[in-house]
Design brief:
Largest sheet: 4 strands, antiparallel
Strand order of the largest sheet: 1-3-6-5
Order of helices and strands: HEEEEEEEHE
Shape: elongated
C-alpha cells in the first residue's frame, strides 16, 4: 500500500512538471495613445519685409487664418504662395460680412455689442531684387 501511494505521488509530481506556460507575456492594452503624433509645422514661413520669389510658400494653415492678398495664391490645402517676386506685407482689414450671408447670421450674432472683426491678409508688393548676382558671360 505504501508503494502504491508513492507511485501516485510521483505520477502527480511529474504532471506538474509537464504543465506549459505562455511563451509570451501578455502586454495588456493601453487606450490613451493619442497626442503622440508629431506636429504638422503649420504657420507662416516668410516674415514681413522678406523678399520672395514667385512660387515661394508664404504660409501653411489648416483653417483659413490668413487670407490671400495682392499677388498671392491659395492652394487646395489652403497654402498661400507668392505669384510674383517681391516683398511680403501683412495687413489687417476690418471685415464686414454681406447682410444676408451665413457669416452675418452665425458669427455676428454671437459677438458682443461693438465688437469689430478683422481679417489678416498676406500680400506681395512686386519689386526687383537688389543685390542679386547674375552670371555675366565673358566676351
Amino acid at each position: 500500500m505504501a508503494a502504491l501511494g508513492r507511485q501516485f505521488l510521483t505520477t502527480f509530481h511529474t504532471s506538474l512538471v509537464a504543465v506549459r506556460w505562455a511563451s509570451k507575456k501578455s502586454g495588456g492594452s493601453s487606450k490613451n495613445l493619442g497626442g503622440r503624433s508629431p506636429g504638422k509645422r503649420h504657420g507662416f514661413k516668410k516674415v514681413e519685409g522678406a523678399f520672395v520669389h514667385a512660387g515661394n510658400i508664404l504660409a501653411t494653415q489648416r483653417l483659413i487664418r490668413w487670407h490671400p492678398g495682392a499677388h498671392v495664391g491659395m492652394g487646395r490645402n489652403k497654402t498661400l504662395y507668392a505669384l510674383e517676386d517681391g516683398i511680403v506685407r501683412y495687413t489687417k482689414e476690418v471685415f464686414v460680412p454681406p447682410p444676408r450671408s451665413s457669416e452675418s447670421r452665425d458669427v455676428i450674432c454671437q459677438l458682443p455689442k461693438g465688437a469689430v472683426l478683422y481679417k489678416t491678409f498676406i500680400s506681395v508688393v512686386p519689386t526687383t531684387e537688389v543685390g542679386s548676382f547674375k552670371l555675366v558671360t565673358m566676351l
